[in-house]
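Appendix C: a fully annotated inverse folding record. The material below is reproduced so that readers can follow the format used throughout the book. The structure is listed first as tokens, followed by the designed sequence.
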């Protein structure tokens, strides 16, 4: 009979007194002690972990989107493509997380819902930051964060920057000059579909070999919005499955509010041009 495996014989580090371990590097003592259910309901832990891990993935998405926006403003925009692809994969992970949450039944959720008070995912400042970066900008959405000055400042500063799509359109304008109303617009507001932008993107799609970088950028943006839309759809489906058409804990219409969000287009010209090609 063989001896039990001993990783130390192969050189594995086994003593960490005064040295950095896996848990030290990842600060797991902080992360794993951050789950504090307020009820005795079994499924409240699922609810907490689901939302905490979603916030961690959104933290990474913001990191990648911020870097991608900076890269798109450079003469060689191609490094941004990997970052945008990564964000799409992040939203694929977020989509899969809804499958876990959907194992919670209406009865399970009802057993602890009152402990949530007025808290709601609607109030997630990281989700709002992602929307602002992607171009879905509405200054009224700053109000839920007025009680936290540092968050309010972060989101206000984001509104003052060009969105990811604004930067993409500026890159597009170098090949197909766009009106000042597009490249110099008020970035605190949501971009409205513009015929000149639509025509420029259409030209890119008609001549992909000539404008390959812009062509690839366009498809990376469409891919990202595709996954983002799926995440929103899965959100609606999960909420309807768990609470039906009850009003959300944060005061929104719940499913009715989320369904309105499904109609939002982040990069409208990139979707509309497909009909005309």
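Designed amino acids, in order:
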């Amino acid at each position: 009979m063989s001896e039990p495996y001993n990783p130390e014989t192969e050189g594995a580090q086994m003593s960490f007194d005064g040295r950095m371990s896996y848990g030290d590097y990842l600060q797991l003592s902080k992360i794993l002690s951050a789950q504090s259910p307020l009820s005795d309901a079994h499924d409240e832990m699922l609810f907490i972990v689901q939302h905490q891990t979603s916030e961690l993935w959104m933290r990474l998405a913001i990191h990648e989107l911020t870097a991608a926006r900076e890269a798109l403003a450079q003469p060689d925009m191609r490094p941004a493509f990997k970052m945008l692809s990564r964000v799409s994969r992040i939203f694929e992970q977020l989509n899969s997380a809804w499958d876990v949450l959907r194992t919670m039944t209406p009865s399970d959720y009802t057993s602890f819902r009152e402990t949530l008070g007025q808290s709601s995912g609607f109030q997630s400042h990281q989700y709002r930051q992602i929307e602002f970066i992607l171009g879905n900008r509405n200054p009224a959405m700053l109000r839920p964060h007025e009680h936290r000055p540092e968050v309010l400042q972060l989101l206000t500063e984001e509104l003052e920057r060009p969105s990811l799509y604004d930067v993409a359109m500026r890159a597009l304008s170098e090949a197909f000059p766009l009106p000042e109303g597009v490249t110099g617009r008020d970035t605190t507001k949501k971009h409205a579909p513009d015929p000149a932008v639509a025509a420029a993107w259409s030209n890119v799609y008609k001549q992909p070999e000539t404008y390959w970088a812009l062509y690839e950028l366009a498809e990376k943006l469409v891919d990202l919005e595709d996954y983002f839309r799926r995440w929103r759809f899965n959100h609606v489906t999960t909420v309807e499955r768990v609470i039906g058409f009850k009003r959300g804990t944060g005061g929104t219409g719940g499913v009715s509010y989320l369904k309105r969000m499904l109609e939002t287009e982040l990069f409208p010209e990139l979707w509309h041009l497909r009909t005309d090609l």
